[in-house]
């Protein structure tokens, strides 16, 4: 059986209760991810962008079942991951891995680097100690780490090298799907380009599918085949990278793209400066969630919520009046 | 020659560690003309923040020791000044804004009180007058409902609003020089655009000069008049925005610009990388500090440190390639993106 998507999410919701008072009474819900549907195709890099608090990291964690979805369907290779039992989940975990943002916080400081990389192998595979060692050496070479330093602790490595350790750990079990959650955001420019090249090399060699989350739009543009834009828990636009940058259809995407400071000086660009603040996610605006700040708002936007609908060749936008 | 508000000469600041004195900046020289913006760009550990803290003489409190050099503010040396006398300058004539607006504010005072504090201290205003002016400052940084917001605490505000409060605090005494250390790094891109725009407008309104520290070449391109590139504690190149972006001379600047993924043109190919990583300040290489990572390194680079040499237009770079007269292997135009650049006016800003 073949599927169009390696991973498909349908109407995925993740609500966090707001509790208050002595008895932790639930007084409301923060809708971190609210009715998001999209798919990631095998072998592609799907970029996910949006500002802090828009729900992109929560969505990624729900897709990996690191957090349980409040509602909705998530299928990985056609299998509903919401319903799998614990032994199947163990198998599933080997196929789905994550690289975290913070190269300092995501590595156990009391583990040797070789043990950090070997941990998934020891957990999931029955391998002899010799085979584990051989695989660790292989992985370290693959991600460009000096093998002679395998008996050292994470603090002896630089930020870029630690991120390589995190990548080696993520690919140790030959996963199909890797989430890179702000994997290069904490790195300096000259190191960032090294890690981006590594991620692309690994994708080619190992046939990986990436969900690449970042707020640096130039980085997302560089690495992604398709991009999804999120605003306040909603997916507002999905399009191929070239199409999105050439002709954004959702006003929020347009604003986001225009806000990036460009390293080409004195360029005549049109900049749209947003007025106001991001509304509280506990009490989102009626209708279109972006209507309070949208430069092109109309009456219908205040009342009726737009759905993510086809808006051209292989693209979707959630706007009543797409640009 | 335009008047200079700030002249930094051979500023060397070190920290005493187990390995002895480790220099964080090494003979840094920078000039800032009145009314202009100088951006200091560089990666982590390049010494940008230490330079700023040294100018403010705050480095004394961070454990740093200024071992050499002078900092002239309107011709007056700040390095030899007693901390007591610095109090009249810091927070008054030179002010600073920091990266993280949340931790720059005191959580137990309302934002209005925090702005009023500097007005009472430096301008000797009465409490009532200071409060009136701090509300006015909030209005000037385009804070919505300034009267209400002045009575609120930092936790009641978003990151962007907190940064507006910090800017209001910094500008309350009408400073001559504003030092901004990564003022937008902690903010989202749309908020960053708001704050950068605000800083540019306020710079004009208050007739200030600005020293802006950033790691983001895009931010530097948008706000700077001149840019200084720092690497491992030293200034390696300095010039106008156009010079740095279109005709960079130092291989580090060239590499840095090439390794940023672009926003247009080809994408997805392999990115240019500068091999290796930034050396720790305790192990600065001999000769040119960039030579182990430089594609064009020659014998002289390994042994002798290149001086910061100046071209006729004032574009400075510390590279031996400028001196040898040999065929210059550096690309004439390193930007792999086709940049259509119009020099002159800043792009108009639309505010729908």
TrEMBL record, chain A:
The keyword DNA repair does not apply. GO terms for molecular function: ATP binding; ATP hydrolysis activity. Pfam families: ABC_tran, oligo_HPY. GO terms for biological process: peptide transport; transmembrane transport. CDD domains: ABC_NikE_OppD_transporters. Keywords: ATP-binding, Nucleotide-binding, Transport. InterPro entries: AAA+_ATPase (IPR003593), ABC_transp_ATP-bind (IPR050319), ABC_transporter-like_ATP-bd (IPR003439), ABC_transporter-like_CS (IPR017871), Oligopep_ABC_C (IPR013563), P-loop_NTPase (IPR027417). Residues 7-257 form the ABC transporter domain. Belongs to the ABC transporter superfamily. This is ATP-binding cassette domain-containing protein.
Automatic annotation (TrEMBL), chain B:
It is a peripheral membrane protein. Keywords: ATP-binding, Cell membrane, Ion transport, Membrane, Nickel, Nickel transport, Nucleotide-binding, Translocase, Transport. GO terms for cellular component: plasma membrane. Residues 323-352 are annotated as: Disordered. The keyword Membrane applies. PROSITE patterns: ABC_TRANSPORTER_1, ABC_TRANSPORTER_2. It is found in: Cell membrane. The keyword Metal-binding does not apply. GO terms for molecular function: ABC-type nickel transporter activity; ATP binding; ATP hydrolysis activity. It catalyses: Ni(2+)(out) + ATP + H2O = Ni(2+)(in) + ADP + phosphate + H(+). Its EC number is 7.2.2.11. GO terms for biological process: peptide transport. InterPro entries: AAA+_ATPase (IPR003593), ABC_Ni/Peptide_Import (IPR050388), ABC_transporter-like_ATP-bd (IPR003439), ABC_transporter-like_CS (IPR017871), Oligopep_ABC_C (IPR013563), P-loop_NTPase (IPR027417). Residues 327-340 have a biased composition (Basic and acidic residues). It holds the Pfam family ABC_tran. The complex is composed of two ATP-binding proteins (NikD and NikE), two transmembrane proteins (NikB and NikC) and a solute-binding protein (NikA). Belongs to the ABC transporter superfamily. This is Nickel import system ATP-binding protein NikD.
């Amino acid at each position: 059986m073949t599927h169009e998507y390696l991973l498909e999410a349908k109407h995925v919701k993740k609500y966090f209760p707001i509790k208050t008072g002595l008895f932790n009474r639930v007084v409301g819900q923060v809708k971190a991810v609210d009715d998001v549907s999209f798919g990631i195709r095998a072998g592609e890099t799907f970029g996910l962008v949006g500002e802090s608090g828009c729900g992109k990291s929560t969505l990624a964690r729900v897709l990996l079942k690191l957090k349980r979805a409040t509602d909705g369907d998530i299928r990985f290779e056609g299998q509903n991951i919401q319903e799998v039992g614990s032994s199947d989940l163990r198998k599933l975990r080997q196929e789905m891995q994550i690289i975290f943002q913070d190269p300092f916080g995501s590595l156990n400081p009391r583990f040797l680097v070789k043990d950090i990389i070997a941990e998934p192998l020891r957990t999931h595979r029955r391998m002899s100690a010799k085979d584990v060692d051989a695989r660790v050496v292989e992985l370290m070479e693959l991600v460009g780490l000096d093998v002679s330093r395998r008996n050292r602790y994470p603090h002896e490595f630089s930020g870029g090298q630690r991120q390589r350790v995190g990548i080696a750990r993520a690919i140790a079990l030959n996963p199909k799907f890797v989430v890179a959650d702000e994997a290069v955001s904490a790195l300096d420019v000259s190191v960032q380009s090294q890690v981006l090249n590594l991620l692309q090399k690994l994708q080619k060699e190992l046939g990986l599918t990436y969900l690449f989350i970042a707020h640096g739009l130039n980085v997302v543009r560089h690495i992604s085949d398709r991009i999804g834009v999120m605003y306040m828990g909603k997916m507002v636009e999905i399009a191929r990278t070239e199409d999105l940058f050439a002709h954004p259809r959702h006003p929020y995407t347009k604003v986001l793209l225009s806000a990036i400071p460009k390293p080409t000086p004195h360029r005549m660009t049109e900049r749209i400066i947003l007025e106001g603040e991001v509304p509280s996610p506990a009490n989102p605006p009626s209708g279109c969630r972006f209507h309070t700040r949208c430069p092109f708002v109309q009456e219908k936007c205040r009342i009726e919520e737009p759905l993510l609908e086809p808006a051209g060749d292989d693209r979707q936008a959630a706007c009543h009046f797409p640009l | 020659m335009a008047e200079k508000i700030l002249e930094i000469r051979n500023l060397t600041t070190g920290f005493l560690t187990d390995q002895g004195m480790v220099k964080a900046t090494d003979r840094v020289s920078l000039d800032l003309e009145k009314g202009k913006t100088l951006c200091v760009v560089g990666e982590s550990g390049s010494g940008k923040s230490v330079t700023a803290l040294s100018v403010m003489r705050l480095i004394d409190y961070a454990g740093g020791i200024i071992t050499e050099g002078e900092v002239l503010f309107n011709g007056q040396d700040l390095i030899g000044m007693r901390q007591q006398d610095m109090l009249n300058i810091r927070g008054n004539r030179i002010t600073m804004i920091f990266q993280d607006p949340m931790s720059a504010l005191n959580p137990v005072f309302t934002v209005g009180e925090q702005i009023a504090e500097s007005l009472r201290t430096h301008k000797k205003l009465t409490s009532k007058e200071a409060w009136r002016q701090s509300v006015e400052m909030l209005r000037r940084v385009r804070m919505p409902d300034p009267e209400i917001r002045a009575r609120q605490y930092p936790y009641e505000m978003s990151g962007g609003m907190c940064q507006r409060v910090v800017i209001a605090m910094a500008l309350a005494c009408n400073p001559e020089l504003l030092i901004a250390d990564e003022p937008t790094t902690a903010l989202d891109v749309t908020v960053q655009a708001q704050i950068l725009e605000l800083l540019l407008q306020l710079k004009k309104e208050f007739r200030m000069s600005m020293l802006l520290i950033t790691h983001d070449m895009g931010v530097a391109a948008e706000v700077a008049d001149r840019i200084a590139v720092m690497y491992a504690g030293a200034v390696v190149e300095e010039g106008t925005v156009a010079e740095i972006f279109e005709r960079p001379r130092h291989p580090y600047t060239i590499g840095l610009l090439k390794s940023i993924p672009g926003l247009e043109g080809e994408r997805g190919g392999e990115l240019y990388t500068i091999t290796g990583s930034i050396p720790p300040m305790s192990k600065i290489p001999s000769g040119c500090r960039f030579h182990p990572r430089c594609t064009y390194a020659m014998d002289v680079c390994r042994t002798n440190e290149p001086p910061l040499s100046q071209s006729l237009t004032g574009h400075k770079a510390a590279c031996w390639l400028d001196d040898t007269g040999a065929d210059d292997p550096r690309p004439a135009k390193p930007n792999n993106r086709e940049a259509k650049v119009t020099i002159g006016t800043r792009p108009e800003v639309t505010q729908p």
